[in-house]
Amino acid sequence: MPDKGSKLAVIGAGAVGSACVYASMIKGVAREYALFDINESKVKAEALDIAQGSQFAPVSTVEGSSDMAVIKDADVVVITAGAKQKPGQSRLDLAGATINIMKDVIPKAVEQAPNAIFLLVSNPVDVVTYAGLKISGMTPDHFFGSGTVLDSSRLRYLIAQHCGVSAQTVHAYIAGEHGDSEIPLWSSAIIGAVPLLQWGETVDGRKLDESLREAIHHEVVNSAYSIIEGKGATNYAIGLSVAQIVTTILRDERRVLPVSTLLDDWMGISDVCMSVPTLVGRSGVGRRLVPVVTPDEYRGLRASADSIRHVASKFGM
């Protein structure tokens, strides 16, 4: 159970922010939930809608407000506010508008919750996390992005479907950018105790060869675009993934999650925020783990870092 006084604040009452609060409340992640948005009628309605279902979840309170003071003294602050991704638009195209929003939001949020751990969800999450870290003046262990936690879940789901196992049995990571240049770490993926590359036949008799793995990777990369085209936004799976990250923090579970953090000579990669397997707990992010990778995977990770830096450089970072 969460600590008696644990408080989760979410900035942005759109589809993603509301899903984060909803998923977290159902899981009993915190004792208090605070939802902030500049649209007062929207944020109050979202908070009330969630709060009125509190009978069916662990005991908690939910408050929504257009006053940033609502997040005061939060233990974790999740930022989902940002420009909305349009059909066919890449995450990196969103950078400029969202960074401008961060320049306004983050200083006010840090003032209200200076001791909180900040989790950035707004896309493009890697570039915005890097910008937000600089804007906040916080240390990298207390300010990081949701990264490829959702992408890795999508990858595990698809592998599970092909292999006829539960997704919980699959251990596989997407690393690099949360976006088009992300890299699946096939060489370290396992199902149970069996390396994925040694699994054998799938449920339809196919081999998990390079062509099938590439098809899975393509589906992971394009999942968000397909969902946005169909319903306008992704929200349920990201809400669940954020709830998992916050649970890991507040309960000090010390899970390994592929969050987006500032790297300092990680496999020779520095001064960029991108996702790598990282130890996460009550103190925020800790050790960035170094998996075994193939030369192709390593080159892909370097290229992904360069892609993120290229976009960041357009905004003076």
UniProtKB/TrEMBL annotation:
Activation and inhibition: Allosterically activated by fructose 1,6-bisphosphate (FBP).
Active site positions, chain numbering: 178
One cellular component (GO) term of this entry: cytoplasm
UniProtKB keywords: Allosteric enzyme, Cytoplasm, NAD, Oxidoreductase, Phosphoprotein
Modified residue annotations for Phosphotyrosine: 225
Pfam families: Ldh_1_C (PF02866), Ldh_1_N (PF00056)
Amino acids binding beta-D-fructose 1,6-bisphosphate: 156, 171
Lactate/malate dehydrogenase N-terminal domain span: 7-145
InterPro entries cross-referenced by the UniProt entry: L-lactate/malate_DH (IPR001557), L-lactate_DH (IPR011304), L-lactate_DH_AS (IPR018177), Lactate/malate_DH_C (IPR022383), Lactate/malate_DH_N (IPR001236), Lactate_DH/Glyco_Ohase_4_C (IPR015955), LAMP_CS (IPR018134), NAD(P)-bd_dom_sf (IPR036291)
EC number: 1.1.1.27
Gene Ontology BP term (one): glycolytic process
Pathway: Fermentation; pyruvate fermentation to lactate; (S)-lactate from pyruvate: step 1/1
Subcellular location: Cytoplasm
Binding site for substrate: 85, 91, 123-126, 151-154, 234
Enzyme class name: oxidoreductase
Molecular-function annotations in GO: L-lactate dehydrogenase (NAD+) activity
Catalytic function, reaction form: (S)-lactate + NAD(+) = pyruvate + NADH + H(+)
Similarity-based family: Belongs to the LDH/MDH superfamily. LDH family.
Subunit structure: Homotetramer.
PANTHER family in the record: L-2-HYDROXYCARBOXYLATE DEHYDROGENASE (NAD(P)(+)), L-LACTATE DEHYDROGENASE
Name of the featured protein: L-lactate dehydrogenase
Species: Ancrocorticia populi
Species lineage: Bacteria, Bacillati, Actinomycetota, Actinomycetes, Actinomycetales
